[in-house]
Amino acid sequence: MGVSIEVRGLTKSFGSQKIWNDVTLTLPAGEISVMLGPSGTGKSVFLKTLVGLLKPDEGQIIIEGQDLVTLKEGDLYEVRKLFGVLFQDGALFGSMNLYDNVAFPLREHTRKSESDIRNIVLEKMDLVGLSGAEDKLPGEISGGMRKRAGLARALVLDPEILLIDEPDSGLDPVRTSYINQLFIDLNAQIDATFLIVTHDINSTRTVPDNIGLLYHKHLAMFGPREMLLSSEEPVVRQFLNAQTVGPIGMSEEKDADELAAESGKELPPLPPIPLQLGTSDGTPRRAEKPAGEWCRANGIVPPPGSFLSGNAGVPGVPQNVEAGRAALS
């Protein structure tokens, strides 16, 4: 089972440039969370800070009762074994074939025999759909395959926390759908805590259990998927629905004159909240919640059409319209 990550008052700057300030949230154990934000808001910096590659200026990162910010290097090294990290481009060694790339953490951090390493590597490569590609070099395969190889490498030490940086960058919509399904299936199988940084709104609307949004040097909101997808908070509503009306401008935030000019405009209605993506075989994940549960518990009426469609034909997703209607009642 994954472990929770409690972030308290995290602040990070590079020189005089403030990246974000007073970020506080808890990534629930075993759940899939997504972190969004306009370009340049420090999403990748946040991932690197969580794993201890960057030191924050202030704040705490609590994992299993230990504050990563104050740990000595030797203790931090041990806690990092809880993590698996998938970087944007896979970060594979170009001179090594896929087998040796995936085997690298096992050879570096364990004393397992080559026989045991082979069994683990082949298992993880099969898990991400790369059986038979062991001898290929990173330069001989597609971007999607490189990402899956990077994911296999992130999995070989059986991490309890997976940090995933823009898995959809450079992928076409079909490959993005495949890798989204892979994350759902992996979460069901290994029950790890996932944090995914992405710009892809379709993925954000259907994959995670929780969503966070970094904006203007702070955490605008973090919480259950249904909370953010039904939110009327201007920056959250604008970003999650890809609208031009709102505080986010082409470069940074809009100035007072731009916002004043928009004040009389009628906002388009919120789109329906889709059903969350299910596992390929229909087996429920431990973290999976009934559709509409958060809305019902908090007295929120979701946008019309929510939970009735939007995932038609997706494997593992209940297609029963009556079940969707029940979620609204």
Walk me through this protein's architecture.
- The protein is α/β, with parallel strands linked by helices and about 325 residues long.
- It folds into three domains: about 5-225, P-loop containing nucleotide triphosphate hydrolases (Rossmann fold), CATH 3.40.50.300; about 240-260, no CATH class; about 270-329, no CATH class.
- It contains twelve helices and ten strands.
- The protein has helices at about 45-50, 75-80, 100-110, 115-125, 145-155, 175-190, 200-205, 225-230, 235-240, 255-260, 295, 320-329, and strands at about 5-15, 15-25, 30-35, 60-65, 65, 85, 160-165, 195, 210-215, 220-225.
- It has a six-stranded mixed beta sheet. Strands 2-1-4-5 form a four-stranded antiparallel beta sheet, with no helix packed on it.
- Strand 1 and strand 2 (about 15-25) form a beta hairpin.
- Helix 3 packs across helix 4 (about 115-125), helix 3 runs parallel beside helix 5 (about 145-155) and helix 4 (about 115-125) crosses helix 5 (about 145-155).
- It is globular, with a radius of gyration of 21 Å.
- Mean pLDDT is about 85; it is low at about 310-329.
- InterPro entries: AAA+_ATPase, ABC_transporter-like_ATP-bd, ABC_transporter-like_CS, P-loop_NTPase.
- Keywords: ATP-binding, Nucleotide-binding, Transport.
- This is ABC transporter ATP-binding protein.
- It comes from Knoellia subterranea KCTC 19937.
- GO terms for molecular function: ATP binding; ATP hydrolysis activity.
